[in-house]
Amino acid sequence: MITRPLDLASRMRGVPRSFDAFFYVNIGLILLFFGLFGSRFVLSPGLATDFRLPEAANSLAGAMTTDVVIAVPRDDMVLAEGEVRSFDQQFRGWLRARVGDRTDARLLVQAGAPVSAHELARIYAIAAEAGFASVLLAAEPSEETGAPAGSGSGSGSGLGLEVKP
């Protein structure tokens, strides 16, 4: 008794004898749920469905395809074909090579929120110099004002017009 001075083993309850039925009920419920959730009545995650979205008759009337896409996440940084570029002569030559001898080439500029209107005007000038017929802008809204990048509102846009009475 010197190794067990509190004699805790004698104060424990005995093992209950009625757990045999609980074991079989538990196994039965597990099999039932596997059977229900594996059946064809439950939509499984990989099951293809036949949902169709409604289509508008003139939904693509104003859509334009673009030949070249560049992303401008911030000022003086251009992502084109997975490469980071700046507004140097190499980028201008890259744009000229994309235009080639076509006269209807279009450029899509994906501008981030911190891009200023000055940078967008600079991109438009470079694109016009390279020979693009038009430049399309896809701008992220600014977190401060909710206006698109380069729209002249918010801080950091250099070409915003101010009207005074």
Structure, described:
With 165 residues, the chain is α/β, with parallel strands linked by helices. It has a domain at 68-139: Nucleotidyltransferase, domain 5 (2-Layer Sandwich). The protein is built from three helices and five strands. The chain has helices at residues 19-37, 89-99, 117-130, and strands at residues 68-74, 77-80, 83-85, 106-111, 134-139. It has a five-stranded mixed beta sheet, with helices on one face. Helix 2 (89-99) packs across helix 3 (117-130). The longest helix has 19 residues, at 19-37. Mean pLDDT is 77; it is low at 152-165.
CATH class wording of the domain at 68-139? Alpha Beta
CATH structural architecture of the domain at 68-139: 2-Layer Sandwich
Rg for CA atoms = 34 Å
Q: Biggest sheet: strands, sense, closure? A: 5 strands, mixed
* CATH topology term of the domain at 68-139: Nucleotidyltransferase, domain 5
**Residue share in helices?**
25-40%
Number of strands: 5
Proportion of beta-strand residues? 15-25%
Q: What would you call the shape?
A: elongated
How far apart the termini lie comes to: 100 Å
With strands numbered from the N-terminus, the spatial order across the biggest sheet is 3-2-1-4-5
Task: Give the SSE string.
Answer: HEEEHEHE
State the low-pLDDT regions, or none. 152-165
Arithmetic mean pLDDT: 77
Structural class: alpha/beta
Q: How many helical stretches?
A: 3
